[in-house]
TrEMBL record:
<comment type="similarity">
    <text>Belongs to the short-chain dehydrogenases/reductases (SDR) family.</text>
</comment>
<keyword id="KW-0560">Oxidoreductase</keyword>
<feature type="region of interest" description="Disordered">
    <location>
        <begin position="207"/>
        <end position="226"/>
    </location>
</feature>
<protein>
    <recommendedName>
        <fullName>NAD(P)-binding protein</fullName>
    </recommendedName>
</protein>
<dbReference type="InterPro" id="IPR020904">
    <property type="entry name" value="Sc_DH/Rdtase_CS"/>
</dbReference>
<dbReference type="InterPro" id="IPR036291">
    <property type="entry name" value="NAD(P)-bd_dom_sf"/>
</dbReference>
<dbReference type="GO" id="GO:0016616">
    <property type="term" value="F:oxidoreductase activity, acting on the CH-OH group of donors, NAD or NADP as acceptor"/>
</dbReference>
<dbReference type="Pfam" id="PF13561">
    <property type="entry name" value="adh_short_C2"/>
</dbReference>
<dbReference type="InterPro" id="IPR002347">
    <property type="entry name" value="SDR_fam"/>
</dbReference>
<keyword id="KW-0521">NADP</keyword>
Length: 279
């Protein structure tokens, strides 16, 4: 698997922090070529990336802007015309003082813009180039090879309802719907699309949500007691009684990107310590 990934070029949104940073680091360690799309540079307290692969950084890019995402992908394909994979990790869980039972319109718009529209813009830019350059298999012909790969990071909130997190839950449900439909629509082009559903994970995004959390780059995004309580409640439901680590989630992405998962598409892998369990 290491040697195989070392021949691939992969784009990672949100690659400067948390799970995205861990995925980029693992891909580079395997020797892959990686493009990071992020609005921020390397996050505080994150290790420098390995030097064994080849890294391109596209910063700052606002993934809520179709125009900026389109321009970034144009640059990516000029640098590396053969892109194998896209990993969508960019996400956010904004909150404000409007309350948790009825969140503000601003929170709704920001949450869907980053988590859903951002994923949609990046993925459709990727798919548009596949459609331009690849002929699909004939109808009902078997697809034997993974030519392209989409891995999207959703959330356990894409699988069940979470108390007082209606907007974030809805945005992540939408990402799951996109993933499942892309798996159907693009299989003939050799595309596989899957989703990783993290549970409570120790990342800067999670820490910002805690009562004393603060996002210095986004002063209107800050922790609150209610959301902190919900997150701690979620952690205590987990049989392993701990948060996951970014590296554990990154391993799931590496699995989906590899041929170890060659017969898996349109699926969700919950990496959540055992909760929630879904049928």
């Amino acid at each position: 698997m290491t040697e195989w990934l070392g021949t691939k070029t992969i784009v990672v949104t949100g690659g400067s922090s948390g799970m995205g940073h861990s995925i980029v680091s693992k891909l580079l360690a395997h020797g892959a070529t990686v493009h990071i799309i992020d609005i921020q540079p390397l996050a505080k307290n994150h290790a420098n990336y390995p030097t064994s692969g080849k890294l391109y950084k596209h910063i700052p890019v606002d993934i809520t802007s179709r125009e900026k995402v389109a321009a970034t992908f144009k640059n990516i394909y000029e640098l590396t015309p053969d892109v194998y994979g896209l990993v969508n990790t960019a996400g956010a869980a904004p909150c404000d003082d409007a309350g948790r039972l009825i969140e503000s319109d601003s929170v709704y718009e920001k949450t869907f813009a980053i988590n859903t529209a951002g994923c949609y813009y990046a993925t459709t830019e990727f798919l548009a180039r596949i459609r331009e350059n690849v002929q699909p298999e004939a109808e009902n012909a078997p697809v034997q090879e993974t030519k392209f790969n989409i891995v999207t990071f959703g959330s356990s909130a894409a699988l069940v309802g979470f108390p007082q997190c209606a907007v974030y839950t809805a945005a992540k449900h939408a990402v799951l719907g996109l993933t499942r439909t892309w798996a159907f629509d693009w299989a003939a082009y050799g595309v596989r699309a899957n989703m990783v559903a993290p549970g409570a994970t120790n990342t800067p995004l999670a820490q910002v949500q805690m009562p004393d959390g603060k996002d210095d780059k986004n002063p209107d995004v800050y922790g609150d007691q209610t959301r902190g309580d919900v997150m701690d409640w979620a952690r205590l439901q987990v049989p392993l009684k701990r948060w996951g680590e970014a590296s554990e989630l990154a391993d799931a992405a590496i699995f989906f990107l590899s041929e170890k998962s060659s017969y898996i598409t349109g699926q969700v892998l919950a990496v959540n310590g055992g909760w929630p369990q879904t049928g």
